[in-house]
Specification:
- By secondary structure, the chain is α+β, with helices and mostly antiparallel strands.
- The chain folds into two domains: about 5-165 and about 300-325, Triger factor/SurA peptide-binding fold (Orthogonal Bundle), CATH 1.10.4030; about 185-280, Roll (Chitinase A, domain 3).
- The protein is built from 13 helices and nine strands.
- It has helices spanning about 5, 15-20, 20-25, 55-70, 75-100, 110-120, 125-135, 140-160, 170-180, 200-215, 220-225, 250-255, 290-315; strands spanning about 40-45, 50, 185, 190-195, 235-240, 265-270, 270-280, 285, 320-325.
- Strands 5-4-7-6 form a four-stranded antiparallel β-sheet, with helices on both faces. The protein has a three-stranded antiparallel β-sheet with strand order 2-1-9. Strands 3-8 form a two-stranded antiparallel sheet.
- It is elongated and about 85 Å long.
- The two termini are about 25 Å apart.
Amino acid sequence: MHTKSFFKNSKTLPFFLLIACIAVFIATASLAASGDTDALEYVAVVNNKKIPTEEFQLNVDMVKNSYDEMGFHLEEGQLEELKKIILDSLIEKELLLQESEAKGIEIDAAAVEEEIDTIRSGFPDAPTFEKRIQEMGYTLDFLKHEIRSNMTIEALIEQELASKVAVSDEQMKSFYDAGIENYRIPERIKASHILVTDESGGKEKIEEIRKEIQEGGDFQKLAEKHSQCPSGQNGGDLGYFSRGQMVDAFENAAFDLEIGEISDIVETRFGYHIIKLEAYQKEETKPLEAVKDDIAKEIRRQEVASRLQPYIESLKQTYPVEIMMPGAETEGK
C-alpha cells in the first residue's frame, strides 16, 4: 500500500488529529509509550516553546495502536509518514494555542467540567471512567488540560475563521441541487410482527396465534406474549424501514399490506411471522427550507477547513518554528 494513499487529506489531517486527541485517549484501552524515542529531548520548538519528544512519542503510540485495533498494520514507510503528520499536528496545536493566548481567549472552568461530564457519561459509572484514565497512565488533571486546549483552539477558529464565513442563499441552493440524492427519503413503512421459531412451536403455534387475532385478539398483547423477536417486548413494533432492509419474503409481504391489515403466515429463515402494517410513507424529497440549517453548517465547515491551513501558515510568520527531529521536514514547511 502506498504511504500517501493511506493517509488521505494529509494536509488537513494534523488539525483533525489534535481535535480528536481526547477521543483517542478515551477509546484506546491499553497504551504505553513504546520507548521508540531517540536522544532528543524535544522534537520541535515553536516560538521558544519546546515540544517534548515524550509527548510526540505518546501521540505516535496512540494513533498507531488505534490503527492496530482496526486491523491496519502500518508498514515502515507509513509509520514514518504518520510521525511527520503527528509532528505537524503538535506544532500546529502549539501555534494555535499561542495565538489564542495573544488574542486573550480563555475557557471557563465550568465549560471544561461540562465536557468532562459528557465524556464520563459514556462510561457505566464514574469509577470505570477514572480507572480507564489511570490505565492510560494519565490523570484527570491532564485530561482537563487537553480538553481546555482543544476548546481554546476551537474558540480561536470560531472567532477568526468561522464567524467570518457568510453563506448565501445561492450557495445553499447550489449545494442542495448538487446533492439532491442526499435529501431523498425512500418509500417506507412502519410494521409490527409476531415471530415464532421452530423451537417455540413453529407453524402450528403461529397458526393458533393468527386464528386468535382473526377472532379479535389484540395484536400487540399477543406479540408481547408469544413473539420470539426482541421487538415482542414493544408489542412487535419494528419501527420504520424501507425496501432492502428486511429479508425478501418478509419485505414483499409487508409492502403488499394496507394500513391496519394483517398478513398471512410468512416463512423466513428466522421462523414464521405474522405482520401488521401500521403506517406508510411514500417516497419524498426534503425541501430546501427543511435542510437549510444543516447545509449552511456544512458549507461553513468546508470553508473553514479550506482556510485553516493558510491561517496556520500565516502564524508561522509570527511564531517561528524550528524542527529538531531529523528527516521530519515536510512539504510546505
